[in-house]
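Collaborator request, handled under Task 6.
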Amino acid sequence: MHHLLLLEEACQKLRISSYVIKLVPGLSIDDFYLTQSKMGSNFEPMDSSYEPVSIVLMPVQVILDKRQVVDHSKVEQTSRRIWPIQDVAYSIEYIKALPFYNMLDDVSKKILIGSALICSNFTSAFFSYSKGADRTTYPDGSCMTWDRQVEEQSPEVARFHTVLIVAMRQVELDDREYSLLKLIIVCNPILDGLRSYDVAVLQQMKERCTKTLLSYVLARRGVCEGPAYFAKILSLIEVATKLTSWQKVSRSAPTFSDWPWDCTRILRRLLRQYSIPNDDTDTRDRSTKRERTCKYGLVWCEYVHQDYLLSAEKY
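Structure tokens returned to the collaborator:
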């Protein structure tokens, strides 16, 4: 437990340091999985000579209609960083610092750090919760904001930045529970492509952390309330997984004409399920209807393009 707390402390220290990855075309997991973790490195504190800002979420249709591809290699990030991307890099460094990481096959290493997106979401949510924020907040003081139009047109975008934080607050998650739960999330033995031996390593570590978490929850909350709290705490994994799955889908942007007709029919049923407008009553030709359906289905939840998301969406 003490080692996990030190590891988490080093992770948060890295987030507030001057270390940032250089976003260049072609950047991928291959550039990270064999290098030594940056955790524990003595970086200077990040520049804090500017006022914190509010990162405004735009209505989905506005972003989809006016979206532009940004060359992030030309973006200066010394004083202001693109947190959704940098946090994935910090989570990769966290995973590489885990004691069992070097025991894994190279293929499994790539797959494991390829799942860093959910780890980064969980990290930023707990940081926001620990600071008393009700929405995603970053170490430089920046926070996500939106207006009523966004809530009405794209409620899932606002939920992405609040639901996990609210769930953590409801169970009063503390540092130890968070550190154990984060490791349980990382040690996912059902990731596609893992070597059989490495599956056993991750499964053993996951079971060990789960037992430790149960013991700690029972000690902290008592034998009467402990089991119920333990179940609620474990349910945070499902919340984080669903949010990350939605995030991956919403950040994929295929050409609308490439969507198979059968897929768009399924998508429209999902849109109806979540009360999102669709084109069932549209009498135009199929290609036009398919494009409109896909526009509603692709939700851009951040203010940046994810071309350089370290290929995490592949996993």
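The cover message to the collaborator said: "Residues 196-250 form the longest helix (55 residues). The chain is about 55% helix and 0% strand. Please let us know whether this matches your experimental observations."
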